[in-house]
Amino acid sequence: MSRLGTETAFDVLARAKAMQAAGKDVINLGIGAPDFQTPPNVSEAGIAAIRDGYHFYTPAKGLPEVRAAVCEEIMRVRGVEADPENVIVCPGGKPTMFYAMLMFGEEGAEIMYPNPGFPIYESMIEASGAKAVPIELLESKGFSFDAASVLAKVNERTRLIIVNTPANPTGGVVPKEELAALAEGLKQHPHVAVLSDEIYSRLTYDGEKHESLMQFEHLRDRLIVLDGWSKTYSMTGWRLGWGLWPKELVAHAERLQINSVSCPSAPVQMAGLEALRGPQDAVDEMRAAFDERRTFIVDGLNSIDGFRCVMPKGAFYAFPNIEGTGRTSNELQDLLLEEAGVATVSGTAFGKLGEGYVRFSYASSKEEIERAIERVKKVLG
Ligand code: PLP
Predict the structure, then answer these.
(1) CA atoms of 27 and 366, how far apart (whole Å)
(2) Would you say residue 259 lies in a domain?
(3) pLDDT of amino acid 381
(4) How big is the CA angle at 267 (ends 264 and 272), to the nearest 5 degrees?
(5) Cβ(92) – ligand 1 distance below 6 Å
(6) Does the beta carbon of 93 lie inside 6 Å of ligand 1?
C-alpha cells in the first residue's frame, strides 16, 4: 500500500473546489474533463433506461449490444474487426489498466511506461511489485518515443509495455512509423504484452488520423486496448470505458471484473450505447472547439516570459516548458493556484521527467483560458 501513488489532478481539483467554496475565483485548468454537457440524446437514453427497468446486474463483461457497439466503434476509428466476446465494458478507462497491471505485475517483473505519463501507470506498476521502467518522452521529439530505445530496454523480465497515444499530459501523438517500428521489433520478444491506452482516440488535430497498435495483426494476441466514453462524449462522471482483450486473457480479466465491480452500471451502459450508435455531431463539435482552444492557449502560453510550448497534436492538454521562469514545476503549480487562482498540474505529477513542465488542460472555455493567461502573466510579471 505504501507504494501506491495517486493522481495529483484530483488533489488540485479538491484544493480548487475548497478555494471556490471559500469565495475565491479559481479558473480550473487542472482536471482533464471536458467542460461540455454530455450530449442530450445520451443523457436521455440513460434516464429512459432507469425508467425502463435497467436496474439489474448485467453480464459481467457488459450488455451484448454494448459490446457489439464497441466493436463498431473500433471499426469506425481503427478500421479493424474485433470480436464482442473480447470486449469488457467497465466503469471508466481506469479498470482496464488496473486489471492489466494486476495480471502482469509482480516482484521480479518489469513493466515499461511513458514518462511523463498518466500517473496511474507508475503507481500501479510499483504497487504490483514490478519494476517500473520509464519510456522517456522528449519535448524535442514532439513528446513521442523512439522505438529503438524502447526495444533496447526489453529483457526477459519485461512483461508489459504501455503505450499512450494521443497522450496525457503532453498532447503528443506517436507517429505511425514509430508504432510500426515498435510492433516490428516486438516480433523478437513474443513474451511481451502491450497495453495501448487510446482514451483520446477521437481527439486528434491537424488532420492527424488516430493510429492504433491494432493495425499490426501479429500483435493482436498480446494487445490490450483501452478506450472509453469519458473524453469523447464528455462523460467523465458517468464512469464508462472498455477494454479489448486478447482471446487468451479475456476470461481472466472478466474474473477480475467479477471480483471487483461485478459489472458496469446498467443504465449507464444504455447511455453509452446511444453515444456510440447515435449521431456523432456532438463529438465533432467538441473536437472542433478543442482544436480552436488549442492554438489559442498555445499562443497565449508562448507569450508568457519563461514559457515555451510545443503545439500538441491530440487530447486536450498543453504542456509548456517553464524552466525559464526559474521555478520548479511544483512551485509554479502552487503559485498559480494560490496567487493567480489558476489550477494547473505540476509536470512532476506525471513522473520525474515532467520536471520543468506544467500541464494546462484546455477543456475549458476560451474566455476562461484568456483570463487564466492574463492572470499568469500578472503573477509572473
Ligand atoms: N488514460 C489516460 C491517458 C487518461 O488521461 C485518463 C483520464 O484522465 C484515463 C486513462 C482514465 O479515464 P477514465 O476517467 O475513463 O477512467
Answers:
(1) 12
(2) yes
(3) 85
(4) 75
(5) yes
(6) yes
